[in-house]
Design a protein that fits this description.
With 364 residues, the protein is of the alpha+beta class. It has 10 helices and 7 strands. One of its GO terms (molecular function) is phosphorelay sensor kinase activity.
Length: 364
């Protein structure tokens, strides 16, 4: 118990009170001792002679001795009562200080008890300390904020594990089935082996793309952004340059109208990936000979980037779900894409305080 903050605060408060009281009582004792008159006590008297008034002085020694004795007794009594008062005051201050320290530290016990009860599997609890806005209230609010971040991180981790286990099951099953088929048929023809290898290659490619998308999605759910000053137009231009060759291979052209002076603070790599995901979808869904238009600008205090393509378009129901995790349209299901690309775009944009939208109609 002697090592607790409550005990140390009690001793500190009581010690300070004892010292202050001792100084006050010592000052009173000193003042009283100096106020006593040590000079001989004298008196004046009058005596009448034949109608005349005679004035004279006479020293009264025995009165002085009585006065000195009274002063000594008074000072001794004052000293004794002061010492008794100091001891009693110190003992009383120990009890009062113990109670007051307990009341002051009560929020600390509440914070400690709540944090001890919180586990990694249940991060929904919060301290939510009531009371005035003081240091302990700030401490509790800081811990609640930290728990919010921890819950978000653990939720992202669980989401990543669930998504990975769900989405990797299909390509792993395909790989294992084809490998087992080849191994269990030693007399399989070269054509059958080649077909099995091609299927395994597509499945591993899909797994690689899926893992990359899952990791990117998990990173965007965290808070470790490399924020820096950047030019959004330049970021969009770099994404366009990266997709020029893949687009040309599909006989698709990319045009740019990116403006200038689109300065902001953000994660350039993340924003580049967001634009790249939009371009990747546009290149994949555009027919040969189509043109993809990329534009960027500033309007009403907002920076914006738009990607327009000549794809098959989306119906009303699909437009509402296009940014959901693992949602895939008909073309994406045929191409066996992960369904995370546009979900990652939304995460990146929202993490920068923006919003994302799609404008499309089926067949346009």
């Amino acid at each position: 118990m002697i090592h607790t903050i409550r005990f140390r605060l009690t001793v500190l408060y009581s010690g300070l009170l004892f010292v202050l009281a001792a100084l006050v009582l010592g000052g009173i004792y000193y003042a009283v001792s100096k106020s006593t008159d040590q000079r001989p006590y004298t008196t004046e008297y009058a005596k009448a002679y034949s109608g005349d008034q005679y004035l004279g002085k006479r020293e009264v020694v025995f009165v002085q001795e009585v006065e000195n004795a009274v002063n000594v007794k008074t000072l001794a009594t004052l000293r004794d009562y002061s010492l008794v008062t100091l001891v009693g005051l110190y003992l009383a201050s120990l009890g009062i200080g113990w109670v007051l320290a307990g009341r002051v530290l009560r929020p600390v016990r509440s914070i400690t008890r709540t944090t001890e009860e919180i586990q990694a599997t249940d991060l929904a609890r919060r301290i939510k300390l009531d009371g005035p806005r003081d240091e302990l209230k700030d401490l509790a609010d800081t811990i609640d904020t930290m728990l919010d971040r921890l819950e978000e991180a653990f939720s992202a981790q669980r989401q990543l594990i669930d998504d990975a286990s769900h989405e990797l099951r299909s390509p792993l099953t395909i790989i294992r089935a084809n490998v087992d088929a080849v191994l269990s048929a030693p007399d399989a023809s070269d054509e059958e082996r080649t077909r099995a290898v091609a299927i395994v290659d597509r499945a591993t490619t899909r797994m690689t793309r899926l893992v990359e998308d899952l990791l990117a999605s998990a990173r965007r759910q965290g808070t470790a952004f490399a924020d820096a000053d950047l030019d959004l137009a330049r970021v969009a231009a770099e994404a366009c340059e990266e997709h020029t060759t893949p687009a040309a291979a599909r006989h698709v052209r990319i045009t740019r109208d990116l403006g200038y002076g689109l300065d902001m603070t953000g994660d350039s790599d993340a924003l580049r990936r967001a634009v790249a995901n939009l371009l990747s979808n546009a290149v994949r869904l555009s027919p040969p000979g189509a043109t993809i238009r990329v534009a960027a600008g500033r309007a009403e205090g907002w920076l914006w980037v738009a990607v327009r393509d000549d794809g098959p378009g989306l119906g009303e129901e699909d437009r509402q779900r296009v940014f959901d995790r693992f949602w895939r349209g008909e073309a994406s299901r045929r191409d066996r894409h992960t369904g995370l690309g546009l979900a990652i775009v939304r995460q990146i944009v929202e993490s920068h305080g923006g919003r994302v939208a799609v404008y499309s109609r089926l067949g346009e």
